[in-house]
Design brief:
- This protein has a single domain, classed as Beta Barrel (Porin), CATH 2.40.160.
- The chain is mainly beta.
- The longest helix has 10 residues.
- Helix content is 3%, strand content 59%.
- It is built from two helices and 22 strands.
- It is found in: Cell outer membrane.
- Keywords: Cell outer membrane, Membrane, Signal, Transmembrane, Transmembrane beta strand.
- InterPro entries: OMPP1/FadL/TodX (IPR005017).
- Its main location: membrane.
């Protein structure tokens, strides 16, 4: 009982919001061609309709209708090792498989209206994650003479978050060099989260199962994107885009256990600010067979100031709004460079490298393993016919070993070591009408 703090003070839901922030982890999986070149130049290359996910202005580069559909299989490898109470030998174990693989679909269609205007529609995902370290939540430790030290249940559990972006865009060719574009994003998000485990809440200090957090919520939000393309000539061009992300509201069942009241507090909505995304990309056809391309992208993770809950009740008490937690995340840059080589009339090959900066600053999380990441990618395209192409891409994403120190409302500071790697396998079919 010495280590068990019964005054949680709504911390359980605060940690739920930490996991909801996992939806903020940006996905780079929008196309097989992008995966194969580490998304270098993806906002301006326009070799298929998937460019719509990065820059609506690039639709002006198409002189006929184009369709792309694809799937990316993300094999995620997240390890959480040596979860211990800081400054003590009390440890609760490790989880070597803390994330499940995901299948991420995409769809793009672009249609020129005339020699000036084009429109497009797309379905893809920009944010999503999933981790499960709930197996450690029941590993309470009994210390002779000190009593039972519960596992940090408020930090350990299952998290599943997915978003889908439904986009409609227009582009306008101003002149032979400059094209502009804009689009509307309708974003659907869904998340499930549990924090449950054995805690010494019985009168004699005995262990009992406590459901601290149980969340099942979804919602819709509106965002937008604007972009531009400048063509120096047929072989050299630059693209730029800015995606405005919304303040996202997820509604549903959001329940928190409050020990003082021995009851569940319920909220109807979690309010989550999503980051904006700015990128600059270049494409240069250096020879008849070889092209060089690159991207610099900034994501405003520093916009995460707080997560709030709205429309809550605890018994007969109404809770209009509650600030859950302050965050000290950093804005993040990624940089990528790639090349494409036309091997034969039917085959093109590509490769790329990306350095993706981590976003976690002063406040880290056991269940959100984050670090700088390096991407090593290869891909190929095979022309089935003059109008149809199969694209393939593989990306090896490697993170870093990170020591995490996170405060548990139950037992104080907790130390763990985390690492997050992934391998992306992507396939795509493209057709130009």
């Amino acid at each position: 009982m010495k280590y068990f703090n019964k005054t949680l003070l709504a911390a359980a839901v605060a940690f739920a919001s930490t996991q909801t922030l996992a939806a903020g982890f940006q996905l780079n999986s929008q196309s097989a061609t992008g995966v194969g070149r580490a998304f270098a130049g993806d906002a301006v290359i326009a070799d298929n309709a998937s460019v719509l996910s990065r820059n609506p202005a690039a639709m002006a580069l198409f002189d006929s209708k184009a369709l792309s559909v694809g799937l990316t299989y993300a094999d995620i490898d997240v390890t959480v090792k040596d979860v211990c109470k800081a400054g003590t030998p009390v440890c609760f174990g490790s989880e070597d498989a803390a994330a499940d693989a995901k299948v991420i679909p995409n769809f793009y269609y672009i249609s020129p209206i005339n020699d000036k205007w084009a429109y497009g529609v797309a379905v893809f995902s920009n944010f999503g994650t999933g981790t499960d370290v709930g197996a450690l939540a029941n590993n309470a430790k009994t210390i002779p003479g000190l009593g039972t030290v519960p596992a940090p249940v408020d930090l350990l559990g299952n998290t599943e978050v997915v978003t889908m972006n439904f986009n409609g865009s227009l582009s306008y060719r101003v002149n032979d060099q400059l094209s502009l574009g804009a689009g509307i994003d309708v974003i659907y998000g869904q998340g499930k989260l549990t924090r449950e485990g054995q805690l010494p809440v019985l009168p004699n200090g005995g262990l009992a199962n406590v459901e601290l957090v149980n969340v099942d919520a979804d919602g819709w939000a509106l965002g937008g994107i604007v972009g531009g393309v400048y063509e120096f000539n047929a072989n050299h061009r630059l693209g730029v885009s800015y995606r405005f992300s919304p303040e996202f509201k997820a509604s549903g069942d959001i329940n928190q256990f409050v020990p003082q009241a021995r009851a569940q507090a319920s909220f109807d909505e979690i309010v989550i600010p999503l980051p904006d995304i700015f990128q600059v990309a270049g494409f240069h056809q250096l020879t008849e067979k070889f092209a060089l391309h690159y991207t610099a992208q900034h994501t405003s993770w520093g916009d995460f100031k707080e997560i709030t809950l709205e429309d809550g009740t605890l018994g007969s008490t109404t809770i209009p709004e509650a600030q859950l937690k302050h965050y000290a995340w950093d804005d993040s840059w990624l940089f990528s460079v790639g090349g494409t080589y036309q091997l034969t009339d039917a085959w093109a090959v590509r490769a790329g490298y990306m350095h993706d900066k981590g976003v976690v600053g002063e406040i880290s999380s056991i269940s959100i393993p984050d670090s700088d990441r390096n991407w090593y990618t290869v891909g190929a395209s095979y022309a089935l016919t003059p109008k149809s192409t199969l694209d393939f891409g593989v990306a090896f994403v490697r993170g870093e070993d990170v020591e995490v120190v996170e405060q548990s409302a139950l037992i104080g500071d907790v130390v763990a070591h985390t690492r997050s790697n992934a391998t992306y396998y992507s396939m795509q079919y493209s057709y130009k009408f």
